[in-house]
Specification:
184 residues; Arc Repressor Mutant, subunit A; single chain
Length: 184
């Protein structure tokens, strides 16, 4: 009788980096799902790891605290927003940019509101300020402070609009902002 070779198939092994990436994605998705159900402070690490289907060791291999997850979610979310919205347009033509921005924010409002409710409002402001200043590295001190003032005003307007239920249309918000923020 001929000998049988071991024909058992084995799955290819994933690298530690790839496994950590998969774990991080699962934890981030779980955090977003849990934020739909409860506030950030009441989410436990145990609950988070169970929802993500990962071990506590897997959590602590990737994060020190749940605030690290929130920061990662905000950074990823902001990066996508900045790409979708594009660089700000000042002065003439700004109304189209504002309209586009409010349209994108409306489409992403559920996630943005969940992150703001988790206490991320300051992180949104800082990320937008950093992004804006990175695009203007040679700004004079006056230009720098003008950009920061514009960003702060726009952040306050958009946060209030989002948290009050986005009652005004994107068009109305674009008109409002292009008028109010024109002098910046």
């Amino acid at each position: 009788m001929p000998s049988r070779k071991n024909t058992r198939l084995t799955a290819p092994r994933l690298s530690n980096d790839k496994m950590n990436q998969i774990t991080r994605e699962a934890i981030c998705r779980a955090m977003l799902l849990l934020l739909k159900e409860k506030d950030f402070q009441s989410i436990s690490i145990t609950e988070l790891t169970q929802k993500a289907g990962v071990s506590r060791n897997g959590f602590y291999r990737n994060y020190n605290a749940k605030e690290d997850i929130l920061n990662e979610l905000i950074a990823t979310f902001n990066k996508g927003l900045f790409i979708a919205i594009g660089p700000p347009v000042f002065g003439k033509g700004s109304i189209e940019w504002y309209h586009h921005m409010f349209s994108v924010l409306r489409s992403q409002s559920n996630t943005m509101i969940r992150l703001m409710d988790a206490g991320a409002r300051g992180e949104f402001l800082q990320a937008a300020s950093d992004h804006l200043l990175k695009d203007h590295p040679d700004a004079t001190p006056e230009e720098r402070y003008r950009l920061l003032a514009w960003n702060g005003a726009l952040q306050n307007i958009t946060h209030d609009w989002l948290l009050s239920g986005m009652k005004e249309s994107d068009e109305k918000m674009a008109l409002l902002c292009s008028g109010l923020l024109y002098s910046f």
